Amino acid sequence: MAEPARVFSLGSILIDIAVEVPALPERGGDVLAGATRTLTGGGFNLAAAVARQDVACVYAAPHGTGRHGDLVRAALAAEGIAVAGPRRPGGDTGFCVIMIEPDGERTFVTVPGVEAELTRADLDPVRPGPADLVAVSGYDLLYPGSGPVLADWIAGLPAHVRLALDPGPLVGDIPSERLDAVLARAAVLTLNQREARLLAGFDATGPELAAALSGRTPVDRTTLLVVREGAAGCVATGAALGERVLAAPAPRVRAVDTTGAGDTHTGVLLAELARGSAVPPALELANRAAALSVTRVGSATAPHRAELVLC
Q: Looking at the domain assignment, is residue 306 inside a domain?
């Protein structure tokens, strides 16, 4: 009997320092924050979403030796996530300042740490098997230290390993030759509406945006392309869907914090694909999970599988 598929997460984990603000300050200005919280975030959000679907997840990026690194290891252990990446001596895990407005929208300032300095030796223990998925973040492709190493490693992955890429909000800053090489290898490309517009160079929504992006070289019909559109749900095309553009609506909810909603969506989608689910029900479950996550305050707010199948 074949081993169950796993998800290897290479999206670097950092610490989220979140503050609730009435509005973003003007340049040179100031605002008084409301509630504040410090949580494990970044790549942890996706890894936790996978693990909460009862699918094996392996975290495979570096983590620091200071107090931030301690928080990362404790959070991974609490979720039952295996760790393949090294504990890096001489430095700590980075952090991200998140400003959350009353409508749940969030704005970030990221301060990288040791997780941004991936080496080829760090990747030696990462050996995905047949049907496993490897999840990569655009942040790590952008980092001057990690980016070239990660892109080169991805180029050498066996053909049977499914690569999933979420390019993230800084997609326009990733060197084009590096991004294109990874896109050409990706089995899954998932991104939000703003990121899709940046990548496609086309200001549209829904099926029109998905169609425009699917025609962008080197993305082709062998790649499952998912454009997340917040409260509207998502649209998808390619791979098993062929030229069909599937629009999957999301449940209506009142959002209080959208931090990590995209990671929740991606994590649940990858978990369902690892489980062997077809694309339409996998997207439906991912939409439901993301909708539940924005009703909760925090970063890694993905629901557990039991919550999803019962609601």
A: no
Pair 102, 256: CB distance under 8 Å: no
Residue type, 270: L
Measure the N-to-C terminal CA separation of the chain; round to a whole number of Å. Answer: 32
CB 228 within 8 A of CB 265: yes
Q: What is the per-residue pLDDT for 1? A: 46
Q: Report pLDDT digits (tens) over 46-104.
A: 999 999 999 999 999 999 999 999 999 999 999 999 999 788 888 999 999 999 999 88
How big is the chain, counted in residues?
Answer: 311
309 lies in a domain? Answer: no
pLDDT in tens, 187-242: 999 999 999 999 888 888 888 888 888 877 677 788 999 999 999 999 999 999 99
How many CB atoms within 10 Å of residue 38?
A: 12
Q: Who's near 206: CB < 8 A, 6+ residues apart?
A: 229, 232, 235, 247
Q: What is the DSSP code string of 160-216? A: TSEEEEE--TTGGGS-HHHHHHHHHH-SEEEEEHHHHHHHHT----HHHHHHHHHTS
Q: Edge-to-edge strand order for the sheet containing 234-237? A: 82-83, 57-59, 7-9, 133-137, 162-166, 188-192, 224-228, 234-237, 246-248
Query: Model-level pTM greater than 0.85?
Result: yes
Contact between residue 210 and residue 225 where contact means Cβ atoms under 8 Å apart: yes
**Could you tell me the residue range of the domain that residue 273 belongs to?**
7-23+33-301
CATH of the domain at 137: 3.40.1190.20
The C-alpha atoms of residue 222 and residue 242 are separated, in whole angstroms, by 8
Domain count, the chain: 1
